[in-house]
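Q: Two folds, back to back.
A: First:
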Amino acid sequence: MSKAYCWSLGVVLFVLSVASVAALDPCSAGMARAAGGEARFYRDSSGAHRLRGRIGRTAVTFELAPAVDTLVLGEREAARLGLRAQRGGVVRYRDSSGIRVAHSLVLDSVQVGDIVRERVRAVVVSGEDAGVVLLGQSFLRGLARCRDAGAVVLYQARRR
């Protein structure tokens, strides 16, 4: 992957991340704790909100990406996790550089903070090697978000 591509992808994700975080309401006292498990994403030096978590039993670094439909992994990260992406269906994946080839698959278990989701849709993007997993809507759907002291807090919204 070219440095220019990495830089442009980083700028796009940073802009999307900052815009979506700024729009979040502040957490009210005990909001996340009262609802159960939570995950806190803090901004790193690149401006992205990241957190260590697990896919299956293996630790990975997740980057909060609410504008993305699914979890997105690069080929190297998928290989490190022992995922056989080529067994998944071939799909087209659109990013800042256009449309690329990817393989779709379903992950048995994904954990971020105290939140565990099973059977999470993901794509493995050909040629991608960023070393982080984009945490998109296939995991985030149904979770509430708020801001607390510089962190983005995900938590399970109470059912009414």
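A: Second:
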Amino acid sequence: MQDLGLTQRYKDSADVKLFSGMMDSLALLPIRDLPAGIEFPRNNTPEGMEPLLNYFDAFYCTGTYRRIQRDAPDDEGQNVMMLRRIPPLFPPHIWIVHQVTLDDEYRTHNLYEMGASMLKSSFKELVTTSAGNLIIE
């Protein structure tokens, strides 16, 4: 959002917040449902949010294409462009958390975040048992 200059739009627009929530919720779908799931945000993109959707689609869902040779005429004299599909940088199997959510497993790939969460839980339990009902947030 920040890199695309959309932070203020997010703060000001309920539609943009809803759209962002739709994008976030794609992580909860089974991988097989992702192509159908992304169609709804694609068909309901608020004006000006197309760059965010295109970025998400290219880097997290379908990937991009790269031209692999110059346009060359085919047998009929028509120029033909050859493209190679480039897979997404962060393919869905990395960020989809559908199954781990159902299995009640850790939903982060960030080991530091996971470790901090575990420490916080342990510390909270230790302080709660030692000091009564102290609340740590």
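Q: And?
A: The mean pLDDT is 81.
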